[in-house]
Design goal:
It is a single chain. The model is unreliable at 1-10 (pLDDT under 50). This protein is α/β, with parallel strands linked by helices. It has a seven-stranded mixed β-sheet with strand order 5-4-13-14-15-12-16, with helices on both faces. It is globular and about 70 Å long. The chain has 13 helices and 18 strands. It folds into two domains: 6-81 and 115-187 and 290-362 and 396-400, FAD/NAD(P)-binding domain (3-Layer(bba) Sandwich), CATH 3.50.50; 190-289 and 364-388, D-Amino Acid Oxidase, Chain A, domain 2 (2-Layer Sandwich), CATH 3.30.9.30. The structure holds flavin-adenine dinucleotide (FAD). Flavin-adenine dinucleotide binds at residues 22-28, 45-48, 52, 56, 58-59, 118, 140-141, 169-172, 175, 197, 305-307, 310, 313, 316-320, 322. InterPro entries: FAD-bd (IPR002938), FAD/NAD-bd_sf (IPR036188), FAD_aromatic-hydroxylase (IPR051704). Residues 391-413 are annotated as: Disordered. It comes from Streptomyces caeruleatus.
Length: 413
């Protein structure tokens, strides 16, 4: 511990402030990058044994594009862009309703906005920091104690260390949030849908495209990233109340049964998808929800990304909020202490977060109508898009609603 005696302090060079980040997906490595640039000594702890590769595609749009440009990884991400070319909507019998340009539906900008596998984004972020930052894989925080001068941390692997600050970038079901603010239920906003995602063999001949089958309240999508041998399957269904058996960490068998029962009479390729779901070893299921918190920090600990403000995959903005939040949090701490820095982070970022979270309300996801009338309206809209042959609709203003403060002198960008 550095002495705090004024005379001693005057003679010793300033100690690098030491921080711990929990979670090495998107928000965590992005925050590590910027805090390292601002002079912090950064440790990242990740519960998985290694970086999680592959995964479903995520979007990097609007303000978040500027974050990755300033990090120097934009060219790498452009190379990883999955370049989805077609989005085809099917009716109950598998007949084509409309086949449209994906940008027109997503409100993204062709030639600018990016869609990359989540693992490719994580890989690029990690590559930008791994030589400068300490990574601890296969471990996690057991306890956080802020009663002393810093944050005393014990790790599940047995380690004990003290940090100046700790950050929770550990996702929607954040342990950091729970240990700081209590149970997730208080901050959880259920959006009226559940989903099951998994991969299966691409026996459909799909390439660079999404096929989506709908009936009111049900959607089955096959997502072909490039010409891969595998496709991502996503089964989404409306449920007015969140089912008890559903959600992360719950009973997988009950979840499989609920999905199978919900889609039992479905047409098109859904019976084959249900058969694949039974054997899938990468199945993940959850309720579709947002995290909304009145405060993102407590003492010397702050949250970011899905842990603090998950917007849900229905907005397609989770990765972008994680990247922008990381940039804003680090910039706020560049020359401030924890209390002032966390206040500046919230002040500068909350409006952008709320605007993007508000893109979606309960049970009203445009791609997943829950009534026959709603589905009819959506299909009419899609046919109109096709007729107009527009390559891209207007970008959603919410995606670029925040102008980043400039990086500090000497920073890239
Ligand atoms: C099916 C699906 C589709 C999606 N589609 C899109 C999309 O099209 N566009 C988009 O932008 N976003 C999409 N998202 C959302 C996007 O994946 C998230 O918003 C984004 O990954 C958030 O990043 P994050 O770093 O905050 O959290 P996460 O990516 O959830 O990462 C959390 C990390 O913390 C680790 N961790 C968890 N607990 C602990 C612990 N106790 N200790 C240490 N480490 C821990 C995890 O292993 C993980 O590496 C989708 C999500 C899902 C589920």
């Amino acid at each position: 511990m550095t002495s705090t005696h004024p005379l001693t302090a005057a003679r010793t060079p300033a100690r690098r402030r030491e921080v711990l980040i929990s979670g090495a997906s998107i928000a965590g490595p992005a925050l590590a990058f910027w805090l390292n640039r601002y002079g912090y000594a950064v440790t990242v702890v990740e519960k998985a044994a290694a970086l999680r590769s592959g995964g479903y595609p995520v979007d990097v749009r609007g303000t978040a594009l500027e974050v990755v440009r300033r990090m120097g990884i934009l060219p790498q991400l452009r190379d990883a862009h999955v370049d989805l070319r077609r989005l085809t909507f099917l009716d109950a019998d598998g007949g084509t309703v409309a086949s449209v340009d994906p940008h027109a539906v997503a409100g993204s900008v062709a030639g600018q906005d990016l869609e990359v596998r989540r693992g490719d984004l994580t890989e690029a972020l990690y590559g930008a920091v791994r030589d400068d930052v300490e990574f601890l894989f296969d471990d996690c925080v057991e306890t956080l104690d802020q009663s002393g001068h810093g944050v005393d941390v014990t790790f599940r692997g047995g380690g004990r260390r003290t940090f100046d600050m700790v950050f929770g970038a550990d996702g929607l079901h954040s342990r950091t949030r729970e240990s700081l603010f209590g149970p997730e239920e208080q901050f959880h906003r259920y959006l009226g849908y559940c989903f099951a995602g998994f991969t299966l063999r691409n026996t459909f001949g799909l390439s660079h495209e999404v096929m989506m089958w709908n009936t009111p309240g049900r959607a089955a999508a096959l997502y072909a990233v490039g010409d891969s041998d595998e496709v991502h399957a996503l089964l989404t269904f409306a449920q007015p109340e969140a089912p008890d058996s559903f959600g992360a960490f719950r009973d997988p068998r009950a979840q499989r049964d609920l999905v199978a029962a919900t889609f039992a009479d479905a047409g098109w390729e859904v019976p084959g998808m249900l058969a694949a779901l039974r054997d899938a070893d990468d199945l993940f299921t959850d309720v579709v929800s947002q995290i909304r918190m009145p405060r993102w920090s407590s003492g010397r600990v702050a949250l970011l990304g899905d842990a603090a403000y998950a917007p849900s995959f229905l907005t397609g903005q989770g990765s972008s909020l994680a990247l922008v939040g990381a940039y804003m949090l680090a910039a706020s701490l560049a020359d401030r202490d924890a209390a002032a820095g966390f206040a500046a982070y919230e002040h500068g970022t909350r409006g952008f977060v709320t605007l993007n979270q508000d893109q979606i309300g309960e049970g009203d996801a445009p791609l997943f109508p829950t009534t026959a009338r709603g589905l009819q309206r959506r299909n009419d809209m899609l046919r109109g898009l096709r007729a107009a042959t527009v390559p891209s609709a207007e970008a959603r203003p919410a995606h670029a609603a925040l102008t980043l403060p400039p990086p500090r002198p000497g920073q890239p960008g």
